[in-house]
Amino acid sequence: xxxxxxxxxxxxxxxxxxxxxxxxxxxLNSDGSIINSSNEVIIEKFKAITGIGERRxxxxxxxxxxxxxxxAKKAIEDAKINPEELDYIIVAHNYGDIKHGTQxxxxxxxxxxxxxxxxxxxxxxCVGYDMLFGCPGWIEATIQxxxxxxxxxxxxxxxxxxxxxxxxxxxxxxxxxxxxxxxLMRPDIKKIVAKYNANVKIVEVPPGPPxxxxxxxxxxxxEYDKQxxxxxxxxxxxxxxQDVVDIDWMVEDDQIExxxxxxxxxxxxxxxxxxxxxxxxNMAFTPKRR
Length: 290
Known about the structure:
This protein has helices at 39-50, 64-79, 111-118, 137-151, 178-194, 224-239, 264-269, 274-285, and strands at 15-18, 54-57, 88-93, 127-132, 157-161. The protein has 290 residues and is mainly α. It folds into 3 domains: 1-175, Thiolase/Chalcone synthase (Peroxisomal Thiolase, Chain A, domain 1, 3-Layer(aba) Sandwich); 178-239, no CATH class; 256-290, no CATH class.
């Protein structure tokens, strides 16, 4: 089955803050001492390391769901589809809707549900949910949409990545990075979940460009046993790779298969077409969407 991206869209905020706007700022080392270089040199080095030349901020009147809606609308127009045909709306974000001037996160109802409302979609079978997965959230959302379509659950999915996290972080305090916080939290959380034989993942949002992201490997092949063998090899390679943690895999469990054989002669004798039986059985065993 060929799956493709048929449309894209984006929302680019109008509020711009360029690197040159920081020329009059004071830059400090982690110990509080002043960095012994001119601001021009510091900012040029920052740009060389991060690639950041300017920042854009959402207008004070807009929230995450608003800018997600604007991007979604453009993507739908670009794909030339009816929004009522969407089976899933998946929004990747980290902190929900945040009004300007506050630090209160608003995540209920989901951002995806709010986008569905703003798009005026009436279709009750269109499912909207959020993906809180750090920087690679939109990638994980794409993986899930791909799985939905391959399995036949969906035909069209809308994937959105949106964020206004700059409203809640202290842009002057960069002493502790999210990766360091994640490393500090992991041992204690591992101890808790070990008691219950559970599995947990620590998901982080890097304070700068996304240099640390989730690694996903999918193994395909004609022979299932060979797939498992190769998957085990990949898993062991990742386990022995420095800085790669929380290795896990998803393998389909053995399933009980039931085979129903329609007695066509008896079915026709009672005036029931075999196709009606197949349709009824399919309806009975297909999970219903809510």
